Amino acid sequence: MRILHTSDWHLGRAFHRVNMLDAQAGFIGHLVATVREHDVDAVVVSGDVYDRAVPPLAAVELFDDALHRLADLAVPTVMISGNHDSARRLGVGAGLIGRAGIHLRTEPSACGTPVLLADDHGDVAFYGLPYLEPALVKTEFGVEKAGHEAVLAAAMDRVRADLATRAPGTRSVVLAHAFVTGGAASDSERDITVGGVAAVPAGVFDGVDYTALGHLHGSQTITERVRYSGSPLPYSFSEVDHRKSMWLVDLGPEGFVGAERVDCPVPRKLARLRGHLEDLLADPRLARHEEAWVEATLTDPVRPAEPMARLTERFPHTLSLVFEPERAPEDPDVSYARRLAGRSEQEIAEDFVAHVRGAGPDADEQAVLRDAFDGVRADEVAREVAR
């Protein structure tokens, strides 16, 4: 069986101020063409179909078009909801849509109930694990403490228990939306940290032939059988070095055989430029970026006049302008943002406590801070679900 693994479409999302709907429609067309060209037997979409719980109408219309085109191919598709999706909204009509071969898996309680597809070698069981927000599903899975590893492990226990009841030789594919240890993040994924921990070990998914992951936007291999497809389009300049693609995964009679990447069309290249404004405007080596979407970081000691207007004369698709004046490391005016770069909310809060009190928080106080951040995050997710 040949499977096409994709995820993180984020329909309705813009790239800075650029509307990406046409590019997203282009990707859907590419997806359909890939299914035909490579004789794909099943498509899996591992979450974040939409960019937000209540997507704009144009994004809903594009998703509707995608569903019709996939159904017309007569190639089964399995989709799960991600942390950006409203599971309830995405799952509306799942029973009816399933009759057309589009199988939406958005209910945590159904993790152990597979979509069964067959090839010449027997059944392949596809288990959909939608994004599992620990605070909202810990009761469903009977875990004492809310955490990503605990709820995913419990969900996978259900998967393995069901698989054990299937005919010998039944192969298995799991779709999951999570941050797995070893994955490389970018600036465009929403934080899903709980209890100070975001990542779960890849070993959670042991016992299945292939795990199709979503959430991280870079295509990457965690293990041979555990992979991220990444997003088909860039959604932040931190993805400048990404190769946007999907995975073509082959299952033989004994299970996983191999995977190869299929590149996705990218509407425009990305470029991150850094230096003094006059140097950026004059450097002939930068000519190759003149048609790219550009993020320019200006390091001039004094902010130059009309920097964006001057940049766009040479780089007309400049979308982001950052100022980081060159200063000595000991300069007290080094920007607050630079000092906070790469630090978690928990670390920033602990540093604030140390600054105010003269000593950092002890273990109990750290736990209070973690619980506070987790509570706020859980409330935000609950509000999204209820909308």
Automatic annotation (TrEMBL):
Q: What does this protein do?
A: SbcCD cleaves DNA hairpin structures. These structures can inhibit DNA replication and are intermediates in certain DNA recombination reactions. The complex acts as a 3'->5' double strand exonuclease that can open hairpins. It also has a 5' single-strand endonuclease activity.
What's the family? Belongs to the SbcD family.
This protein's encoding gene: sbcD
Which keywords fit this entry according to its UniProt record?
Answer: DNA recombination, DNA replication, Endonuclease, Exonuclease, Hydrolase, Nuclease
Q: What is this protein called?
A: Nuclease SbcCD subunit D
An example GO BP is:
DNA replication
Write the lineage as a comma-separated list: Bacteria, Bacillati, Actinomycetota, Actinomycetes, Kitasatosporales
**Can you tell which superkingdom this protein's organism belongs to?**
Bacteria
Q: Name one GO molecular function term.
A: 3'-5' exonuclease activity
